[in-house]
Amino acid sequence: MCELYGARPEVLFAHQDGTVAGALETSGPAAVVRVLTRWSDLVEAMISVVSGAREQLVVTGSRSRERAYLAAIENMVAQRPDVVHYRVLYGPPRHRVLADHLVRLLELRDPSARRNGVKTLHIGLVEPAEVLERFFVASESAAVVPLPSLHGQDAFDCGVLLSREGAVGLVHHGREACASARPVETIEAVRALPVRHT
Hints:
Helices cover 40% and strands 20% of the residues. By secondary structure, it is of the alpha+beta class. The radius of gyration is 18 Å and the shape is globular. The model has no long low-confidence stretch (mean pLDDT 88).
């Protein structure tokens, strides 16, 4: 096999024994492109990840309410029909603006449709409610992970911008989470979700 593929055994068979570090483990801190310490930088980086998506966009969390960020996602869904979009909710939307965003996504794309044989919109709700919420936005080339604030107690206004190595891992994570989540892929199903803050 090594001669046939021109590769070392630890490369060819890493999936079997886990002896070779993944790209993210190898790159280590180099996968962190930038630490984002201001809200404006965080939102700008998140919008940049959305705008840069050409193949996949994975968004997780149920607390989004930044209108410019949600609008960027809607624009991407409308303008790039081949980009596969995954939205993973951890519990119902916390804010009305997110619930309205989900409805707009469903108005823009039919999750039951297949473009070139591929489903391009997935919306899922992770259950049970005790599962810890994850927050990130990732495309095939970059990702942003919001972090608790460095400035005060109750905010998530900081984060890290990750390179492709980190982004690929988070896309995989989000796709798996969405696959195991309960589909919420009709306007009626979204409107039936309780919203904590209107």
